[in-house]
Amino acid sequence: MSYYQDKIFIFGVLNIKNKTSSAKMNWEDIKLFMALMRTGTVRAAAQNLGISHSTVARRIDVMEEKLAVRLFDRLPSGYVLTSVGEDMLQVAEQVEDELEGLERRILGQDHKLSGPIRVTMIDAFATNLLMPHLTAFAKAYPEIDLEVEVSYESADLDYREADIALRFAQYPPEHLIGQRLLTCASAPYASKSYIEEHDLQDPDSACWIGFGDRKKSTKWVKQSPFPNIPVKGQFVSVMVQFEACKTGMGIGLLPCFLGDSEPSLCRLSPAKPDPGYVLWLLTHRDMKTNARLRAFSGFMASAISSHRSQLEGQIDTDSGQKQ
Predict the structure, then answer these.
(1) Domain boundaries defined on the chain
(2) In the CATH scheme, what is the code of domain 112-323?
(3) How far apart are CA 80 and CA 69, in angstroms?
(4) Coil, strand, or helix at residue 182?
(5) Which residues does residue 121 pair with via DSSP β-bridges, in sequence order?
(6) What is the pLDDT of residues 129-187, one digit of tens each?
(7) What is the pLDDT of residue 319?
(8) Angle at 282 between CA 93 and CA 129, to 5 degrees
């Protein structure tokens, strides 16, 4: 929390006392405590905070010594909160929520077209589709510092992991605001060479390129034009799946804006709106009056609208398929 790191004292807000000592913790102590609580291991907490694992272990020891309490039990599997740590956690989370909310409200009143914007989106948007528009925005608003994070995880806008999210969701959280832009279409694609060399209906010849988590349902295979061929490999990134499809690894179920952009790929069946690809542009309710976020949101909504036909898989051919 940049606004409070040097000034806020939890136990001026948060005060731990026991029989022999009274101590105060600053915000850096609380951040360290929360990181270790959430990750469970010193190494993971260190990576999250951008410091060494020895520093995390040492500072936790110093914190406990200063407070004269044990906050964590050290187990072979990691750090586990003690009962005192559990009590501290409840208050620390309340303070964290209040400070995060205060910062959002302060930033939400910012009417200057300058300063940072953190945006999260998937790699296929950031590279193949929207980069010309991101460049145009940066040129139009040179005082705005644009930070784009490529991620398939849902950034927590409450804790300002991002200011704006281009997110696929059927029902986004109610406390976020924004607009439902469109529903992207998907279709199966394969390279021309793969089609020539394989029988796409033969499970001993062709295969699907897997995506996402192996534990996810493969119901989509049974609903596809090629229900009997196996799924091989797993690729979380759409761009990696796209490259695998291009090089002839198998059939890929790709968003049409990506598959149709590549001349070496053929669409194997008509496009279908994908309920998993409902695209939203979202921000936190407290940030709705921030001028630079409003400028970016409007700019990106217009940019995405200009690609509607690509995103919805509309192709002007008699068959409705890519040739």
Answers:
(1) 9-108, 112-323
(2) 3.40.190.290
(3) 14
(4) strand
(5) 150
(6) 899 999 999 999 999 989 888 877 654 444 456 788 888 887 777 667 778 899 999 99
(7) 38
(8) 130
Q: For the whole prediction, is pTM greater than 0.85? A: no
Alpha-carbon distances of 307 from 118, 194, 261, rounded to whole Å: 23, 29, 12
Q: Which residues of 33-47 are buried (b: 16+ CB within 10 A; e: fewer)?
A: bbbbbebeebebbbe
Structure confidence by residue, pLDDT tens digits, 195-206: 999 999 999 999
The owner of tokens 């059939």 is: 251
Answer yes or no: are the C-beta atoms of 175 and 144 closer than 8 Å: no
Phi-psi region of 160 (alpha: psi -120 to 50; beta: other; left: phi over 0): left
Query: Cβ distance 114 to 140 under 8 Å?
Result: no
Q: Do domains 9-108 and 112-323 have the same CATH topology?
A: no
- Are 253 and 187 in contact by the 8 Å Cβ rule? The answer is yes
- What percent of the chain has pLDDT above 70? 77
Mean pLDDT of the chain: 80
Name 6's Cβ contacts closer than 8 Å, sequence gap at least 6.
26
Give yes or no for a contact between 89 and 37, defined as CB atoms under 8 angstroms apart.
yes
| Residue 189 C-alpha from the chain's centroid | 26
Q: In terms of CATH architecture, what is 9-108?
A: Orthogonal Bundle (1.10)
Residues 115, 293: contact at Cβ < 8 Å?
no
